[in-house]
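Running this now, will post back.
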Amino acid sequence: MDWEPWVHFLHVAAALVWVGGGVMLSLVGLRARRSNDAAIVSEFAQLLSYVGLRVFTPAVVVVLLSGLWMMLAGSEWNLGQTWILLALAAFAAAFLIGALYLSRSAIELARVAAAANLGAARMAIDRWLTGYAIVLAILLFAVWDMVFKPGTGA
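Update: finished.
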């Protein structure tokens, strides 16, 4: 049985979860940002932690491992190709922003939301939304890179 199509499917499906989940979470964040209800803001703060650990982390791991598997398993893709290097750079940038900035923003949001400080919570949501907008831009670049594979002449 040829595993490569299944690994490729997992790679694409996990990327869809990461990108689509991020878009939806950003929309929920915009709603929470506009709300005057501290309970909605608090719920969003809890949602960030829940989704980050249970949805985004597994999706990120599957994207990385399946991408590496396809590259190392003898497919036509290899580390010397420009589009692979761009994909790895995009992955690293999105991962680092998520791990270093977004996680701290979410922790700060949870702290101020628990204290029912709506003004500080809105600022924390703004910081998270700005950071995630950058991640989404990077992920959309990665999708473009995966589709068009620059440097291959295809």
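The chain has one domain: 4-146. More later if anyone needs it.
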